[in-house]
Amino acid sequence: MAMVEQFKMRRVWEDAREMNVALTLKAKWCEVTVDEYVTASDIDALVSMLSAFNARNGKSPKTWTLDVPLVHVSLTFELAYARGTVRVNVDIEQMKGDGGDMKATFSFETTMGQMDELQRQLSAFLARETDLVESLRPE
Q1: Residues pairing with 36 in the sheet
Q2: CB atoms within 10 A of CB 90
Q3: pTM across the whole model
Q4: How many of the other CB atoms lie within 10 Å of CB of 28?
């Protein structure tokens, strides 16, 4: 079986103020990509949230929210029923008004080890060492 990365973020371009990223979230039966402008501080907030989640071994659920004009993304990380298993609850709303409005709510599971990996990759992304983040495999 091919490896499935359930979280992908690709830097499309950037200038001094913001960057255009394509964020893809994938569950067993669906995949959603949001192509949007974000700031380094939006991504940094995700890194900080992951750091806090990882520091407590997932004992308290943490949520990262991206609220930009026309797009709302919310990712909540919490421990699932199995030890070391993390459930990611995804809530996305896109209000482009061009007939392309979209609402999606789904969840997928990954491992605590993948949470560390995502934090590491996002830090490299922020440091411009990479333009692509691929993580949160179901293991």
Answers
A1: 21
A2: 20
A3: 0.92
A4: 12
d(CA 137, CA 16): 32
Residue with tokens 């490896």: 3
Integer Cα distance of 133 and 139 in angstroms: 17
Residue for token pair 């605590």:
112
Rounded CA separation 131/95 (Å):
26
DSSP 3-state helix, strand, coil percentages of the chain (rounded to 5)? 20, 45, 30
Q: How far apart are the first and last CA of the chain?
A: 11
Which amino acid, 24? T
pLDDT digit string (tens) for 79-107?
998 788 999 999 999 987 777 799 999 99
The model's pLDDT over 64-75, given as tens digits with 9 standing for 90+, comes to 999 988 899 999
